[in-house]
Amino acid sequence: MHVEQISIFIENKFGRLAEVTRILGDAGVNIRTLSLADTSDFGILRLIVNDTEKAKSVLKERGFTVSKTEVVAVEIPDRPGGLADILQVLDASGINVEYMYAFVERCGENAVMIFRFDETRKAIEALTAKSFTVLPGERLYSM
């Protein structure tokens, strides 16, 4: 029930983000969702794409530093307090959220959030025990 995410280290300078997206587009790789965190000198672009291996390959060929990470996609009830309910389960289980970001599409009536946990297996067990839906990567890559 993991989702493959690629992380790209990019210099924080004009045109670098456009270059990454153009490389992926030219290779036929579709970006499903992304998160960008930056400092004054560099950024980390986190992407979920429809073809992780191809994305890694074409970006590495162009000199980018790329790594693959497993994250978890969770359906969040799209209502006030929906995210709080999920975070409460994680907190009660002693699981730390390292980072999270929203997925660009909904799953039925629910929003989808991407999480990186310090204890992924434990997080999945805690969430599914409370009847939250953890989505497989294959479902996200083709949404």
Write the layout of secondary structure elements.
Elements: E1 3-11, H1 16-26, E2 31-38, E3 42-49, H2 52-61, E4 65-77, H3 82-92, E5 97-102, E6 110-117, H4 120-129, E7 134-135, H5 137-141
3D architecture notes:
With 143 residues, the chain is an alpha+beta fold. It folds into two domains: 3-69, VC0802-like, CATH 3.30.2130.10; 70-136, VC0802-like, CATH 3.30.2130.10. 33% of the residues lie in helices and 38% in strands. It has five helices and seven strands, in the order E-H-E-E-H-E-H-E-E-H-E-H. The protein has helices spanning 16-26, 52-61, 82-92, 120-129, 137-141, and strands at residues 3-11, 31-38, 42-49, 65-77, 97-102, 110-117, 134-135. Strands 1, 2, 3, 4, 5, 6 and 7 form a seven-stranded antiparallel beta sheet that branches. The longest helix is centred in the first third of the chain and has 11 residues, at 16-26. The radius of gyration is 16 Å and the shape is globular. The mean pLDDT is 90.
Quick summary of this structure?
The protein has 143 residues and is α+β, with helices and mostly antiparallel strands. It has five helices and seven strands; from the N terminus they run βαββαβαββαβα. Strands 1, 2, 3, 4, 5, 6 and 7 form a seven-stranded antiparallel beta sheet that branches.
